[in-house]
Design goal:
The chain has helices spanning 14-25, 32-42, 45-55, 62-73, 91-101, 116-126, 133-156, 169-183; strands spanning 3-8, 29-31, 82-85, 108-113, 160-164. The chain has 184 residues and is an alpha/beta fold. It folds into two domains: 3-28 and 81-183, Rossmann fold (3-Layer(aba) Sandwich), CATH 3.40.50; 32-74, no CATH class. The chain has a five-stranded parallel beta sheet with strand order 2-3-1-4-5, sandwiched between helices. The protein is globular and about 45 Å long. The protein starts with a strand and ends with a helix. 32% of the residues are buried.
């Protein structure tokens, strides 16, 4: 019953690896972005609150994100495990998630490691309008500021595995699966 969190810089291959891992383990891929959109579409109380905030152009609070995650993790399909993507983003969210899942907690937090210059090349190659060198640099700085505490948090719980994100999709997936199975 893998309860997984995936971490990594934008352009590290998280989306690709999420798709492969959820198929391998037959568990749901839970993305906070997808959950927010679903909660808004379903018209849940938290979804309606989130919609007001997003429509105003503001960031959704930890309280709302945590509520939406808790609602999603209560669905029966998560009983056999899940892969959280985009959550937690902060130390406070990680602590709240640990409390929410007590006593079980997260089984493995996967950090896909890819050098800044490689993710920068990958993002520039995507050709998106918002993937300018300056914007990419800001995102990398934000990732370092937000994620370093999460890496420490999960390392202290002995559930963090760092995996080399360079190589083919299959090579990276094999490394991740081996790391998951060695820790769980």
């Amino acid at each position: 019953m893998p309860r997984l969190v995936i971490l990594g810089k934008q352009g590290a291959g998280k989306g690709t690896q999420c798709a492969l891992l959820v198929n391998h383990y037959d568990i749901p891929h839970i993305s906070t972005g997808d959950m927010l959109r679903a909660a808004v579409a379903e018209g849940t109380e938290l979804g309606l609150k989130a919609k007001q905030i997003m429509d105003a152009g503001d960031l959704v609070s930890d309280e709302i994100i945590l509520g939406i995650v808790e609602e999603r993790l209560a669905h029966p399909d998560t009983e056999k495990g899940f892969l959280l993507d985009g959550f937690p983003r902060t130390d406070m969210q990680a602590q709240a998630l640990t409390e929410m899942l007590a006593p079980a907690g997260i089984e493995v937090a996967i950090d896909i490691e890819v050098p800044d210059e490689v993710v920068t090349e990958r993002m520039l190659a995507r050709g998106r309008d918002d993937d300018t060198p300056e914007a990419i640099q800001r995102r990398l700085e934000l990732y370092r500021a937000e994620t370093a505490p999460l890496l420490n948090f999960y390392s202290e719980q002995n559930v963090l595995v760092s995996v080399d994100g360079l190589g083919s999709e299959e090579e990276v997936q094999d490394r991740i699966i081996h790391a998951i199975e060695s820790i769980s």
